[in-house]
Amino acid sequence: MRRTFVWRSPPKRMRLASLFLALLVCHSASSQPIDDINELFKWVLELGGEINAVVRHNKDGVRGLFAAKAFVENDVIAAIPAATILNTGSFNDSFAVPTLTVLRELKDRNSRFKPYVDMWPKPDGILNSCNMDLKYAPMWKSAYWEKSVRDWENHLKALLNGDLDADLEYTIKEMVGNDPVTLDDLKYACAISSTRYVSSLRRRRLIMAPIFDMANHVRNCTSTLSAYDRGNYLYFMAGQEIKAGDEICYSYGSLRDDYSVAHYGFLPALEDPPLLSLVDMPGFDPDMPYSHEDAPSDDPFDGTPEELQAEMARLKGIYNVIKSTPDALPPKPKGEDYVYDLMKDLEERRLNSLAYEIQRIAGLLNVKAEL
């Protein structure tokens, strides 16, 4: 199964060419339920599935998937029956289809996916550009990412108000009937769907698969998801030996810090040396979609002395703008506000990566870089 996430700020009618699995690390362990995990496992097994893993909170307090036995490469971690997989639309549907599909299941007390729905993070336990509170938007200190958050807010408002009905495959009423729907409902459903669907190229569908979507990100993890192209199962396969009791990972790709926060609501493990944020990369084009299959190169910038000087000046300009931009919100004690802490940590990482790259280029030019 090929995985690609194509991203840009949502246009008037967002089209999703193909999408990358997005698993969210949530704000607190309490918002990632595991009390009902037996019901989910029972449901999957009754429908013919196989699960060789358990779910518990890891050392960071985040819900994760752990090996119930030892695995070697290509062993089946989980066989997920088609009957448990939520079809959230096709590659060519608008952004509203996955959102409204998830909303329908959230609103339906008799949903056949209830064991799966009950395991989704609660509204206070999920974060991405769909549901970020606008008060945090200026903390990006990036016109691109701030616009992204505001665009999602505006598009979901337009969806709620019916302004997009003529352009959509389905309307809210068609999907959920007369159940009352709020903007917060749409933000939550959008965040759930956009952080959990995976693409299936043969079926040309976007799907959400239980069990598998509890595996947390490790950049170089080799575990794989089978092509959903035969039989009635999606297979989550071990990519290497895994000891019984070890946490099972899955790689979401090479994540720049800002991209990870915008889409998944967490900061990935620190890179050494630090990588520039996506928006700070040389040649970054805000009008071009991002694809994990064509991600920015990790190779360090190089060129003629003139090109190196120009790049160093560009990076210094970004660095100085961030440092001189006042904080949009008053300081808060660490641990009081997850989103505030996340955005401040992102800013610190961004400054550190800029400083590192400026100093690296200065070394190539044999000059001193003042910051």
UniProtKB/TrEMBL annotation:
Annotated signal sequence range: 1-31
Domain SET: 47-253
One Gene Ontology MF term: protein-lysine N-methyltransferase activity
Keyword Signal included in the entry's annotation: yes
Alphabetical list of InterPro entries matching this protein: SET_dom, SET_dom_sf, SETD3_SETD6_MTase
UniProt keyword annotations, A-Z: Signal
Listed Pfam families: SET (PF00856)
Name of the protein described by the UniProt record: SET domain-containing protein
Source organism per UniProt: Volvox reticuliferus
